[in-house]
Amino acid sequence: VKKNPIITLTTDFGLRDQYAGAMKGAMLSVNPAALPVDISHSITAGDIFEGAFVMAGACGYYPPGTVHVGVVDPGVGGPRRAVVIETENFFFVGPDNGLMSLAAERDGIRRIVEIKNEEFMRPDVSRTFHGRDIFGPVAAHLSLGVGVCELGPQTTDLDFIRIPEPECGDDEITGEVIHVDTYGNLITNIEGALIEERLGHGEVEVRLKDAVVRGLHVSYASLEPGRVGALTGSSGYVEVAAREASAAALLGAELGDKVRVRRR
Amino acid sequence: VKKNPIITLTTDFGLRDQYAGAMKGAMLSVNPAALPVDISHSITAGDIFEGAFVMAGACGYYPPGTVHVGVVDPGVGGPRRAVVIETENFFFVGPDNGLMSLAAERDGIRRIVEIKNEEFMRPDVSRTFHGRDIFGPVAAHLSLGVGVCELGPQTTDLDFIRIPEPECGDDEITGEVIHVDTYGNLITNIEGALIEERLGHGEVEVRLKDAVVRGLHVSYASLEPGRVGALTGSSGYVEVAAREASAAALLGAELGDKVRVRRR
Amino acid sequence: VKKNPIITLTTDFGLRDQYAGAMKGAMLSVNPAALPVDISHSITAGDIFEGAFVMAGACGYYPPGTVHVGVVDPGVGGPRRAVVIETENFFFVGPDNGLMSLAAERDGIRRIVEIKNEEFMRPDVSRTFHGRDIFGPVAAHLSLGVGVCELGPQTTDLDFIRIPEPECGDDEITGEVIHVDTYGNLITNIEGALIEERLGHGEVEVRLKDAVVRGLHVSYASLEPGRVGALTGSSGYVEVAAREASAAALLGAELGDKVRVRRR
User: Fold this and answer.
1) Mutation test of the interface with chain A: which of C3, C7, C40, choosing the one with the most A Cβ atoms within 10 A?
2) What is the pLDDT of residues C136-192, one digit of tens each?
3) In chain A, what residues touch C244 (CB-CB under 8 Å)?
4) Max alpha carbon distance in chain A (Å)?
5) What SS3 string covers chain C?
6) Are strands C91-95 and C82-87 parallel, antiparallel or unpaired?
7) Which residues of A touch C8 (CB under 8 A)?
8) pLDDT-flagged residues of chain B (< 70)
9) Residue C72 to residues A25, B121, C42, C47, C223: CA-CA distances in angstroms?
10) Under DSSP, is residue A189 helix (H, G, I), strand (E, B) or coil?
11) What pTM does this model have?
């Protein structure tokens, strides 16, 4: 992977406090030519799954060599390790708590290194803010061309977060809502491609809470106003959505709610 | 218009999800030297007028050659077209739903092109996320110097959004609140310059909900504490504001409320 | 201080409106090679102390030569002056209302200049938006290498905001909550180093609202689930926090609440 000055950030730091700004400063102090690109600082506090989902949906679109830093890190200062994951196209830098694993696995993991070399950290590393003191500086060093193996020993251990597999019956797939986005779209763990593969062609029926919707639409614009419908969204998962409205609000639906897809 | 690596983004994607990050990645994959600059990702979901107002208030301050991308796009995947508008100083890239028209018109429209050439899009364009698959990549190609006419056929059609004109009587101008900003300032569609032009010099009276305020102040700091007043804001429109407080909250006022200005 | 193209922004503009985007445009129009880096646009409207606290927690981590712009400016258009503060490593640009003073003082103030030279402002400076018309352009000129003394006359006056000093008794330190962060951590004005200095070694007891907690933890991860505890946070201040929960919500605590630390 060739060096590239783009460093993305996905954190739960929020947008009001000094945390994201301090971390970007610590990166730019190591490599003033780096381009910090915010993916999100609004991950729900401590929600590693949400952070992993967002990273998996965004990181893959960046050019080869991009360094992706993730900091949703409730275990900071405890025994959890700090790691760099080198994949086919990227470097991922952050805590070993699963946050980066989903995005990294999709790109193809090549090598994992535990960050140990203090030379690439800030002096006087705190035990409460590794984004500023370890992950940001290490990411910036990678963007300068520092080799992954200089950062610490290779390891094969890695905490994984995975999207729960839907259950596939003969004529029904049962999944769940794994993300509710800013529009109120209810994103499920059922990939659009799975439906055709398991249930064959032909119209399907999607059930979520009290709603029973027929067919998969091709776009939000083709949904009927005021009614929810289903479609395969931009990340490849089936979602229940409403046209210019929040499906989550219309259905009173939330994370973890069951979704059933069957052939009609 | 000479190429320039700055690409601004105005969207309703929100700040928590993967959408803004994925779009910035898709742009940087085309032009890794581009500088993505966030104008806003917090436009109210699907609110094209609000997006147009924000773009019109920000885009004009950028250097010539800047590419401005707007994505408030409830009609994505439907029949609405994708366009590039070349203006005196800028390129605007986004859906043909009026979002960019206000900013583009202010700068002087030179040429409109319908985006058709798939060479400048991501492969496998989705029908739900054209920001990532079409608008972002096209913007990045423009920032690399690709000619507007390579993107598709020229057109003269364009959806326009316009700020509603205030009604001008002999001794009164009647307008409305068109934007409530983060401070609770109530921005109207009455340009400060219009008052002098229509009502002549001399003190005016501004009425909004139960408030009757006298004169136009020159700054927020000259307002009386705890009371609303009127002034011409930084975009040139009369606004009803309060000193270190929200005029919207003090008056219970909202978008669309009538505003009357007359000479005393 | 050598020129450097990084310009940070800390404002209360919010993230929906045109204000931050317009200001970044005005900066890039002066120096298209500048890198605008958002520290925060979500400072509570008009809250100069909060802005000063955030700037003091973030600005110091940037490379030498960085220009830091702050705009929390309820007095815009009134008599408050516009200043540049040159410090050991940075330039600070903004209103003379204390906003930048905390960060500037920590870095070591070298010189203060009142911004008077209109050559470095936008033409037709408004009286409501100096971020766009004065501070942004001046910051960009500094990033191009313009000398501080070209901007206006030197001055020795400066409004200061300071973190209130805790009261130190013989066996007790009394402070207060000065910031509640996005996680609900209650950050106090008691520096961790002060405790050892004043109360000596040995276990301490921290009281805040109804909570009495023993000892200082080393990290959030070492707190007991569901209970608040105290630790020295990443800015050096003692904070009362909860593991994967909001201490502010658990205790019903807020800004200004008293905190007492004593030896057990």
Assistant:
1) C40
2) 999 999 999 999 999 999 999 999 999 999 999 989 999 999 999 999 999 999 999
3) 45-46, 74
4) 63
5) CCCCCEEEEEECCCCCCCHHHHHHHHHHHHCCCCEEEEEECCCCCCCHHHHHHHHHHHHHHCCCCCEEEEECCCCCCCCCCEEEEEECCCEEEEECCCCCHHHHHHHCEEEEEECCCHHHCCCCCCCCCHHHHHHHHHHHHHHCCCCHHHCCCEECCCCCCCCCCCEECCCEEEEEEEEECCCCCEEEEEEHHHHHHHHCCCCEEEEECCEEEECEECCHHHCCCCCEEEEECCCCEEEEEECCECHHHHHCCCCCCEEEEEEC
6) antiparallel
7) 21, 25
8) 1-3
9) 21, 41, 10, 7, 35
10) strand
11) 0.97
> Is A26:A74 a contact under the CB 8 Å cutoff?
no
**What is the complex's ipTM, to 2 decimals?**
0.96
- Residue-wise pLDDT tens digits, C53-78: 999 999 999 999 999 999 999 999 99
Q: For C8-31, what is each residue's pLDDT tens digit?
A: 999 999 999 999 999 999 999 999
* Chain A residues whose beta carbon lies within 8 Å of the beta carbon of residue B16: 40, 42-44, 50, 54, 181-182
- Given C17, C32, C35, which is nearest B181 (Cβ)? C17
Burial of B201 (0-12, 13-18, 19+ CB in 10 A): exposed
Q: What is the DSSP letter of A135?
A: I
Which residues neighbour B96 within 8 Å (Cβ) at sequence distance 6 or greater?
B80, B81, B82, B83, B114, B157, B158, B159
- DSSP notation for B91-116: EEEEESSSTTHHHHHHH-EEEEEE--
Both tokens of B87, joined, read: 């203006």
How many residues does this entry show for chain A?
264
